[in-house]
Batch of 4 targets.
Target 1
Amino acid sequence: MREPVTAAAGPGRPRDAEVGRKALRAAVELYAELGWAKFTVDAVVRRAGIGKAAVYRRWPTREKLVADALEWALVLPAIAIDTGNVDDDLRELARALMAHYLGPYGLAGLRLHVEARAYPELFGELAATLRRTRALEARAIVRRAIARGELGEHASPTLILDTLLGGVLNHVLATPEELRPEMTARSARYIEDITAFVLTAAKAIGPP
Amino acid sequence: MREPVTAAAGPGRPRDAEVGRKALRAAVELYAELGWAKFTVDAVVRRAGIGKAAVYRRWPTREKLVADALEWALVLPAIAIDTGNVDDDLRELARALMAHYLGPYGLAGLRLHVEARAYPELFGELAATLRRTRALEARAIVRRAIARGELGEHASPTLILDTLLGGVLNHVLATPEELRPEMTARSARYIEDITAFVLTAAKAIGPP
């Protein structure tokens, strides 16, 4: 496999960016697995397999590193879903969330919400930003559906999003460890089913 | 306020039981707030305001104490809901879960699922037991509804329970800290609404 162009560009910015990405990726993984209490810059350096000096130069403290890493992995990848119809929008939203939970950073967001209560000065604002970002993009989907007349004006964004997004989360949490490969294999089918389930209630309760 | 009868009974079993309960309660609270990494028997003794010797005699290690405390708070209070109709059963299930999340042990279960991946040898079995217990009692509700003809035979316990239980969880997680009192005040209304929402889909998709 060829090296990505940025990494082959020699010293300077692109190479820095590659080292930075490796550090951020390792930091989110370690945070998701072990949490804040066991999080150290040294452990991130070891897991990422990169130079210690470069990491410490950029992130002198573990607080700065974890904050940047969580923002990079959780807040920045906001997805602007807008397919033009509510069925596809909600399906895509559920699919993206399932992919997130099944991916390497799946536990990081959940842990952030849990740890925001134990360490509010460190994680409180990040958790609040994440909540706000997610809520805004999801609510926009329902608002557009109401504007297009696909859902009635009294359709409840709260109920639609709680059942869809919470449903996906509960599905992942409630699946026993040994059934995880099976759940992953069937996840596309599950996304179809839960989206149809939620849309049935949304359209019946809040008809246009 | 009068002391409870058991605490006034002098030395012997009832008084032991009271000390034990105080220790368990403090242990779950500390685990929920700070997680396993910061969990110590000494901190539990301090928070519970009880004698150190009594606690160490019963729980010589922090592993034993946290395991007993989580089982006591999360696994044992299994609720056998069986009102005779599916609407009331599901409403009561959602209500009990909301009360749990808003109570002092609300974060403990979520943290357990997160930490079961970091410390599988310690929390894996407990998380699995909790999952199994919850799934069995919730699925029994849907099975009885199918047997009584309230739901069709192809009604999906998975979708019904994921959307109802996950919906309640998402509602709690997505609510910003500053809106928590308001959410708590409105939680009875929310339970009515989400139960009706989920039942609408369940009855429309899997009619008897």
Note: Chain A has two domains: 17-73, 77-205.
Target 2
Amino acid sequence: MKPLMTVTLAGGAKTEVLLADDIKDLSAHLGGYGRSVVWVFDSNTNKLFRQLPPSRIILESGESAKNLVSLERIISLALDEGLGRDGRIIGFGGGVVGDISSLAASLYMRGCRLTLVPTTLLSMVDASIGGKTAVDFHGMKNMIGTFYPANEVLISIDVLKSLSEREYKSGLAEVIKHALLSEDQELYKLLLARRTEILDREEETLMKLVELSLLVKKSYIERDPTETQGIRKALNLGHTFGHALESSTRFSAFSHGAAVAWGTVRALEAGVASGITDKKYASAASKLFGSFGYDLDHRIGRGEWIEYRNHLSKDKKKLGGEVQFVLLRGSGKPELHPLPWNLIQSLVMEKAIGRG
Amino acid sequence: MKPLMTVTLAGGAKTEVLLADDIKDLSAHLGGYGRSVVWVFDSNTNKLFRQLPPSRIILESGESAKNLVSLERIISLALDEGLGRDGRIIGFGGGVVGDISSLAASLYMRGCRLTLVPTTLLSMVDASIGGKTAVDFHGMKNMIGTFYPANEVLISIDVLKSLSEREYKSGLAEVIKHALLSEDQELYKLLLARRTEILDREEETLMKLVELSLLVKKSYIERDPTETQGIRKALNLGHTFGHALESSTRFSAFSHGAAVAWGTVRALEAGVASGITDKKYASAASKLFGSFGYDLDHRIGRGEWIEYRNHLSKDKKKLGGEVQFVLLRGSGKPELHPLPWNLIQSLVMEKAIGRG
């Protein structure tokens, strides 16, 4: 295990991000924690181990397991195993496993130790650092949660090889989003220059990609650990449009990342329409998304608009009754703006004007 | 409303403690928050209002409502009312209402605003400041919770008049506990000098009592906001013995405070037996408890010992497998120590040696 970076959050809480050579290296590290642990897998990630640890929960894979019932299962097991506040929950999986495991760790005896092993690109570059924990509630994504940074995040690039194309692309969308949020162009250039290697999941390239992507996220969350300063909200670029799409399509048609890619392109268009985003920049950025094969042309049917709008209205980024959208003044220059409903409708329901 | 004190916790979060002239003053202040609020009452505290606010949850009074179902009810209502992260949950009641309301506020959209109006002496001097939130789980007290300080705590002394004797005495035990944890003797002296006025709930005396008691708690929690330094654990004086008594008697025979009074006297005896607590000091402190009429002589029956021990073993103050007890080197000089099982058994099961 090699230290990759340290992320410092609210109250000085630190997350150590460590890089493993491979799954074996990872297992050896985790084995060192002994018996005061509870492991959380999903029905895919449990297959990464030939022999599973005895104290474990295996969640159904997918968003539908991200609920209070799963949370109770983990906490019950921790209690049965006699874990104290110095006990550890190990979340071994993608964003769903990570978010629930983190919430369980933050709630169990008001906080026990937490290790996250992200097994998807999405959770590696996004969910595993920053301390956001969550379950869905009444069909609303992440309505219940806390801020509780993991003590450590263990990254093993080799697990990315076994991801489905859909899952891999889901993570890649957040990487591209991070590239647009970075003032330096390093990540953006890597995405342009190494498209083939990235799509082929070439290990060296992925290592660089993950590191650069994490550095962008780190720079935003360290300045605003509990999302109260407005800075961290920038990471929600594409998410307000995208979450509502995910919700109104019941989390099936679009992966999270595919929805974010779609949502980010909508946000770029909204920025152009509002005179905030340069048209050429928006066009180039949309083209970058397009080059990785996302469905950016999808439009909401007329019969679905009311539901879509309801989901938008309930967005957590709402402040004082108005939904705030992240728009881009340029690369690395996010701003929060409300948008008029007729503009939103024209962007999500019809072929939008101004897309490249 | 007059500012009484400001408590600063993790990450600089501040709780303003305000003193109301009376319930009317309180209502006027709360009315100023408009409609983006959800009120939480219990089936006693709702009677303090002639006309209840429309957006409200009324919990069954008592510990049995302190569960995940109540939590879900509050969060559902907040969602139905369209509260954003800038919305506010108002917990109007004793410790149970306060703990659940606080947990709901900490979880709703990863944190919304929170006002606590403690209506019992116990919640005024203890639960309402410090940011501990909780529900019980599988019969274990406060197993699920977070740290989430209220934005404001509103104190109206006149509500104490309507408390039952049992409820009032429950709070008074925590006040006496605070007196033992304070290095200066002001609170201890007040308790000795004004016993009659205190038992008569004389308003001026209570105001002083609440303020001094809050100052003791503030001094401990500000030095250790998330109970990681060992300092804050001192506030659990009497609670390890006491919680296990509450749990094993199913939260009915003893009020929380009565159990803490009993537990504190057991901790004083344990301190004497371990050579940590001066015998005369322990005797005087036990006498102070006795003068307010607590049942300090209760003993666990032989058939209940296993259950009592099991509850002790699951205590949250366990670290590295060993239960830590708060013992007193002297007034304001708490220390954490493990205790041998045979000593514990002799203290809780038989007439103990060395009690004054």
Note: The domain at 220-348 of chain B is CATH 1.20.1090.10 (Dehydroquinate synthase-like, alpha domain).
Target 3
Amino acid sequence: MSVISELVAALSPEKVLTDPDVTDSYARDRTFLEPGRPLAVVPAETRQDVVATLRWATEHRVPVVPRGAGSGLAGGATSVEGCVVLTLHRMTAIRELSPADEVAVVEPGVITADLDRAARAHGLMYAPDPSSHEISTIGGNLATNAGGLRCVKYGVTRDSALGLEVVLADGRVLETGRRTVKGVTGYDLTGLFIGSEGTLGVITSATLRLRRAPAVYPATIAAEFTSLRDAAAAVAAIIAAGCQPSLLEMLDRTTLKAIDDWRNIGLEAGTQAMLIAQSDAADGPVVAERMARLCAENGSPFVAVSSSEQEAEELVGVRRLAYQAKERLGKCLVEDVCVPRSALPYMIERIEAIAARHGVLIATVAHAGDGNLHPVFVFDRGLAEPPPQVWAAADEVFREALGMGGTLTGEHGVGLLKRRWLALEAGPVTEEVHHGIKRVFDPLGILNPGKAI
Amino acid sequence: MSVISELVAALSPEKVLTDPDVTDSYARDRTFLEPGRPLAVVPAETRQDVVATLRWATEHRVPVVPRGAGSGLAGGATSVEGCVVLTLHRMTAIRELSPADEVAVVEPGVITADLDRAARAHGLMYAPDPSSHEISTIGGNLATNAGGLRCVKYGVTRDSALGLEVVLADGRVLETGRRTVKGVTGYDLTGLFIGSEGTLGVITSATLRLRRAPAVYPATIAAEFTSLRDAAAAVAAIIAAGCQPSLLEMLDRTTLKAIDDWRNIGLEAGTQAMLIAQSDAADGPVVAERMARLCAENGSPFVAVSSSEQEAEELVGVRRLAYQAKERLGKCLVEDVCVPRSALPYMIERIEAIAARHGVLIATVAHAGDGNLHPVFVFDRGLAEPPPQVWAAADEVFREALGMGGTLTGEHGVGLLKRRWLALEAGPVTEEVHHGIKRVFDPLGILNPGKAI
Ligand SMILES: Cc1cc2nc3c(=O)[nH]c(=O)nc-3n(C[C@H](O)[C@H](O)[C@H](O)COP(=O)(O)OP(=O)(O)OC[C@H]3O[C@@H](n4cnc5c(N)ncnc54)[C@H](O)[C@@H]3O)c2cc1C
Ligand SMILES: Cc1cc2nc3c(=O)[nH]c(=O)nc-3n(C[C@H](O)[C@H](O)[C@H](O)COP(=O)(O)OP(=O)(O)OC[C@H]3O[C@@H](n4cnc5c(N)ncnc54)[C@H](O)[C@@H]3O)c2cc1C
């Protein structure tokens, strides 16, 4: 029996896709990285499918690339030569949703926004909201420890995960964590899997924490600034005043220009940056006024404050246009450095200088409250991948961020894309430990080889 | 040269304490567990002391028991025969406190409350506040993932830790995490060390997250209930209404009786439970009134609401008396189960039934908002350790909690005390994984052997 026919025997013919047109469509995420050719794609429908696939893979030493929606920006789900892509997107059951315990138990293929909607039917919400929430899966969010717009107030995916069910490389099933908010029995294995980018095990179920949904729409402001430093000072003032914004985003002029060219938002000539902030507190409108005042005090010549849900949506809508506006300009390398909040203005200035020096278009948005910047490097649509000057500029951006005490990736992960910079951040002891841990869970190295560590 | 004289040579004579009177005083934590005899006690003053001690210990295969203040309730710092107790309590520097980044970098021996006070001088706070905060160290808090009264709103120690410096068993120095709020480069090693009870490495520095301190004193209520179910229903109502209490504690009648006998709080004959709740929000007094109303609606015949800081202190002061009041009755085994919040009333009822059946005095306080209960088993002061009926009752309490989807320990840790129940919660795959991870960090098994896993 061929290797593949053994897999078919362990699963069923419909669950082993080998038509190259089909397998190709599961080979990439949202990066331009050239994937290896998958042997097959397995769309798992049950935990048992995952167990059978991994047992088979262990027996035959076949690499397995776990996959959610393939919306990743780091190449974590990029297929490797001769692998099986194990996609979880069909496992979409919300097994339980308990308003009393504020907990949901879900399969990994549930779309992030679907869980949030299900929770809202009970007055609850699922807080982590990556901008990709309408397409990304919970499994992918867990495996990358996804952030989002609300995480300035509610934390990242890690902060909403209580427990996991994980299938290990050899098919053993591990349960981590618990259903309670607190618990310290044993090592924090839940945390270890979160952000491990499919290299330690395949998540087949998650117990997630829900939170009370705010009763009202978030009061929203948008403030224009004629200098980046002013905008950054306003961010610092908003945090220092204890406003606890539920969203605090910054857009640079290049981004605003791209949006303006597309949708005409009336961008002023002198505007260098825009801050968008929300408060979902009970006294949100009061907090919004206070944030608006702090923006004005820090030099904003113009601040809009929402007075209705529709106005709030319009103001925050500008932020939502950012990514598509840039994609109109060319292909995009979306980066993801994070720096201590106090370094935010310097980091943005460095990015501008680097862009100028290399003659590269870099448009930056930032989750300003967290110091997490997304410099987007725009390059010629005709190219298959970023040209050398883009990589040279990106390299400098990474080094600057690390030099400020920051990190290579705030929320997207290392994947395949950023492995060559990893050693700059993780010293040799860290690397030894990473590989030691990897061997505990995956001694044959079949799980997502070449990624993350 | 003898083994100890080699240690003296690597450190200095004042840093190697061998006088049995001295070493005995570092052999126990707050449990009654009989310690093994330490070979020596090393009060480290620098990271280099820790490195030298661990290199020496690795060379000579000497077990090392890391120790903070010894306030632990699980026997984590109980010394083992022939070990070196490596105490970090002299490393008390707050190396940095950055209001701009809301971050502190501290040595492990800093007393929890001292860090909080240092932060308050800048309008910030260190949120985790175990009841032991005036004696416990940050290192001990990290190693146990300590909880506290405020964690219903601000989370446990894990939620305030950004990065660590850890010395591994062989003396290598590992830096985990970062200074930024977000970051996903590599595995979550910070989380792995937190709660690992000194079995994976010795924490020599921590980068911690601070938060804005509330501007006002927390508005406080205390509500009496004639039934536990009513009190539990009030807890559920307070959470469901989105009140976000910054403290939500429940005391059972046995606890209240012990406090009343000591300090006369005017306990009514029919009172079965008391809820104490605080809100530190800007509109705290409004929230407190709402919580008071919810208590009344759920059957509380009497609710006190603070109208001044002093009154607030008096109301919450009752909770602070709980532990000492019980110690007046005899020796105490302080337990720490955690159940899903909806199971809280059932768990308390089970505890009462178990107490009656075994003829054991059990007084329970609960961090009610988190479902974390501390049933305190009181036994005869003449006994060196808990008598069999106390262990029999504790055994039933643990099993009940696990049966409800709960955990053996919400915040105190497994230590030595709860190892015999560990297998009930952690299945065989978890145990294999625990030991695999332990081997990565400590292949010779010299770090706190016999603890936690
Ligand atoms: C327009 C756009 C906006 C975005 N905005 C954000 C944002 O705001 N914040 C943010 O954090 N990210 C953002 N992203 C990136 C991406 O959406 C996230 O990384 C997301 O978490 C990936 O989920 P996915 O289901 O698509 O996972 P995939 O891309 O399929 O996989 C991501 C990684 O997870 C692993 N994986 C997937 N499922 C499992 C599983 N069940 N078990 C084990 N490993 C698994 C894969 O092997 C891979 O390493 C954005 C992407 C796009 C295209
Ligand atoms: C009256 C009282 C009230 C309490 N209330 C609470 C509470 O509300 N919440 C709560 O969670 N706990 C509480 N505790 C328990 C205890 O205070 C906590 O577990 C605390 O975190 C222990 O800190 P410590 O410095 O005393 O550590 P120790 O008791 O000395 O050690 C605890 C564990 O940490 C390890 N350790 C210590 N320092 C280090 C280090 N630097 N590196 C590596 N490992 C280390 C030890 O080996 C041991 O396993 C209470 C205890 C008492 C006596």
Note: Chain A touches chain B through 83 residues (CB under 8 Å).
Target 4
Amino acid sequence: MVGATLWRKVMNVSVILAHPNPGSFNHAIARTAVETLQRLGHEVWFHDLQAEGFDPVYTAAELAREAVLPPEIARHVEEACNAAGLIFVHPNYWSRPPAILCGWVDRVLRPGRAYRFEPDGRGGARAVGLLRARVGMVFNTANTPQEKEEEWYGDPLEVHWRKVVFGLCGVPVVVRRNFSPVITSTPEQRCAWLVEVRTAVEAHFGPAAQARAPGVSPA
Amino acid sequence: MVGATLWRKVMNVSVILAHPNPGSFNHAIARTAVETLQRLGHEVWFHDLQAEGFDPVYTAAELAREAVLPPEIARHVEEACNAAGLIFVHPNYWSRPPAILCGWVDRVLRPGRAYRFEPDGRGGARAVGLLRARVGMVFNTANTPQEKEEEWYGDPLEVHWRKVVFGLCGVPVVVRRNFSPVITSTPEQRCAWLVEVRTAVEAHFGPAAQARAPGVSPA
């Protein structure tokens, strides 16, 4: 039992989907990511937030650091903190994720669990990321072409995920792909995009990536 | 009955507040804005989204352009489209508004009512803003100092409100003030910040502003 299979460490990977329409292309993206991870032998924690009726409203009770969380939020926190990878799938709404996913971030990536602050020695504070995930992936759809999103606004989703969320929480490898414009895309284009999703997930969670990753070994 | 009073045109101004804690400084900011507007003789449409139990989750049914909206959303749409001014008060969550306010934007600022797209003559599309508001104001609190928010992230809230939301919806005058760091602020500092709120609201909705504004006259 020595060989390549020993390198195929089972990882827990969270896939979080946020789109109101169950027949959306976002659902196809998420399904592709989930199936690719499962084929690689990983354990997937999948959540279709809209289908699950996730409540994105952060409550006053949750403001306290030691708050007793509702069970469904506590479960999300445990998964998010322990996942080896986090994959988010969502449409671009106003150059940010839909509210239901914003609320997932608000409620689940809690101070003291996903990040903390420590003195920076110069009278300020610096963030220390606490998530275990080494890879964060974002697949988003949009109708604004990528070059216009960059030209007009500076690509706020890139800033949001790469710098603000994954940056603060200490996720070192961030992969984001913006599929746009989705509204005028052909079936062939969408098929090609799903192949891109599969390839990207394989590249970051497949045996080759695990062989490269520090701390992932037959031991 | 000719004189200064005739210049005091009654305006409808929306004030939208999003903070989970009813005792928050955000509530004091919103109260100051509402009272200042009322003292100026305006009609205020005030919503404490959290207290009202606003549901920020955009539904599949609402994706259709001609969707029949839930009554509370339809009312928000009418107010937002007809207000002469829009004022938002919220804390900085992950360099964007809290989910409950993101969802207000998702559900209320609908295509065909708040903005529309038209061909730009070069094969693309350009946005046409449809809101009546001539002034958009944002008062947000944060714990990250303003200079760090700019240095690290490029001040995403500024981009979000000025360019993405008010820009797309055609609100020409945008005023934003970031009160930070709020966590270490003294009562004196907070009092001074509330004076700033009052002064800014007076400057943009008071008689002097109305005298400057085109289309606002005794006729």
Note: The first strand of chain B starts at residue 12 and ends at 17.
